[in-house]
Every structure is written in C-alpha cells, then in structure tokens.
Write a structure and sequence with these properties.
The chain is an alpha/beta fold and 231 residues long. The chain has a single domain, classed as Spore Coat Polysaccharide Biosynthesis Protein SpsA, Chain A. The chain has a seven-stranded mixed β-sheet with strand order 3-2-1-4-6-5-7, with helices on both faces. Helix 2 links the parallel strand 2 and strand 3. Helix 5 runs parallel beside helix 8. The chain is globular, with a radius of gyration of 16 Å. The relative contact order is 0.17.
C-alpha cells in the first residue's frame, strides 16, 4: 500500500527556544515534510527550524491565519494526502501525531481535532480565559450547527482535498473556528481525539496578554455569528 503523503505546517512567531523540540518530536517516518512558516519573527526561529530539518517559509504579515495560508499555498505544490497543523511553542505533544492522522488514514473521517480539554493536561497549561472561550465557542457551534466539538485546539489533521474545499480565508485569530464551522456546514466527517497539553515555552501571544485575549475572543465570536447569520 502506498504511504500517505503527510505535510506538517507549523506557524511560528518568535519560537526560537522551542521550535527544535517541536520538530524533533514529530514521529520519524510518519510525515513527508515539516514546514515552518516564520511569521515575522525577530529571533532565531528561522535558523533553528532549518537546523532541525524543516522547510522554512517566510510570511511577513503577522497573523496566525496569514502563516497558515502561506503554508497551505506551499502545500498546494506538493499535493499531499493529509495536512497537519501544529503550534511551535511545544505545548502540544508532536509525538501523538499518529493518533490524529489514524482516523483519516482509515478513511473514517476527513478532519480530526486534537482535544486538549478531554486529554491529559498539565495544571495551568490552559488559562481560565482559554477554557471559557473554548466552552463558549463549542457551545455556539452546537447551537447553530449541532457541532460536537470540545476544543478549538490548533493541533489538528485534515484531508488535503477537504481542506481545499473549505476555501479558508481568515488571516488572524479566526482560522481554527473558521475551519470547524465550514467543516460542519459542508458536512465533512470529523472527530476529536484526546491529546496531551503542557505549559508552553515562553509567553502566549494570545491568552498571555489582555489585548491578545480580547482580540482573539472578539474575532472568534465575530466569525461564529457571521457564519450563523449567513446560514
């Protein structure tokens, strides 16, 4: 049987202290290529990612969605079977990647979300505002689309053809929720798997600051209601 081509996309903004560990913990032989999108970093993220064996792209427009879209444009030239998204801060456990891709490889689903809320979580790894935001967003996805999600976790795997069908657009904090909403609206097959979670290396650019928390929360809610009103 032909091995599935899996590409990992890691958006990274100033993750020089953690990016090598993230890349190093990805299961050997599982993926075809690891792509780090250096999102306007001012530290040694690019150099460290290259030294760890990743392909490094540059996206000068700062924003999580901008970085993901840059990685996706690169993936288009590679025509993979599965794309995995993973953060560069070492809060997720890259060695659990095989459990994310397994349901897609078995042709059971098209999208798999790594759920931090149902997995083993280091105390303090998810701040109260993150837990509240996840609960509210998932509750609204159930209310509007009967979506059975427990998390907006960034560690996720999706069939490449399904990802392209979603026509992803968000350039900042709404990327993860946009993907889940569009998957529900297109009736993609999806599931969650419990994934482990630990305190990240460094300070979170979102929940680690008041402004980041507010901006992310506003964008997520705005995205939900925009799609709900358009339904």
């Amino acid at each position: 049987m032909k091995q599935a081509k899996i590409i990992v996309i890691i958006p990274a903004f100033n993750e020089a202290k953690s990016i090598s560990q993230v890349i190093g913990d990805i299961p050997k032989g599982l993926v075809h290529e690891v792509v780090v999108v250096n999102n306007a970093s001012t530290d040694e993220t690019e150099q460290n990612a290259k030294a760890a064996g990743a392909t490094v792209l540059t996206e000068t427009q700062r924003g999580y969605g901008f970085a993901c879209l840059c990685g996706l444009a690169y993936a288009d030239s590679k025509n993979p079977d599965i794309v995995v998204f993973l953060d560069g801060d070492y809060s997720d456990f890259p060695n659990e990647m095989d459990r994310l891709v397994a349901p897609i490889l078995a042709n059971e689903v098209d999208l798999v979300i790594g759920s931090r809320t149902t997995g083993e979580r280091e105390p303090g790894a998810m701040l109260p505002q993150a837990l509240l935001g996840n609960w509210l967003a998932c509750s609204l996805m159930w209310l509007f689309w009967k979506g059975e999600f427990t998390d907006l976790g960034p560690f996720r795997a999706i069939r490449y053809s399904s990802l392209r069908s979603l026509n992803m657009r968000d350039q900042t904090y709404g990327w993860t929720i946009e993907m889940q909403i569009k998957a529900l609206k297109q009736k993609l097959r999806y599931t969650e798997v419990p994934t482990s979670y630990r305190k990240r290396i460094g300070v979170s650019k979102i929940t680690g600051t008041v402004s980041g928390t507010f901006k992310a929360g506003y964008k997520i809610l705005w995205t939900i209601f925009r799609y709900a009103l358009a339904s």
